[in-house]
Amino acid sequence: DEIVAIAEKGGIIGLVTKSNWIKINGLHKGTTVNNYLDHFDHVINLVGIDHVGIGLDIGGANPPLGKYPHELSDESLFTQRFPELTGPTADHPMYTPGYPIENVHPVDLSPPYPKTINITRGLVARGYSDKDILKVLGGNFLRVFKKVWK
């Protein structure tokens, strides 16, 4: 209902890459870019290509252990900084202590550098046109920004 309401107002849904939100048991088992692209297909079929974009939300707050300074990759600090997104009290936790922190994002999109080229490759492999891929990669956001930031 929320996705449809956003689209009806001309908005865009930036699809996030959190494994636990992409696939059942995604955090435990890990996910791939194909699992992420399944969500694109679903939302595009629901509301159309003009209302979908990338919402990676990949940053330094949850890198794979050992890839960044200790204060950024320590599991206990992550759960302290983001209690609303972790543990048993979260409605849809993006990370639960005890699970591999490297599974927070799809393995083929994960930091240290987001591998966004794999999104493009996946969209091409699924038969999306160049025009539609450009919309998903940022064209839709640019269209809305131009409309609202006058």
UniProtKB/TrEMBL annotation:
InterPro entries: Metal_Hydrolase (IPR032466), Pept_M19 (IPR008257). One of its GO terms (molecular function) is metallodipeptidase activity. This is Membrane dipeptidase. PANTHER family: DIPEPTIDASE, MICROSOMAL DIPEPTIDASE. One of its GO terms (biological process) is proteolysis. It holds the Pfam family Peptidase_M19.
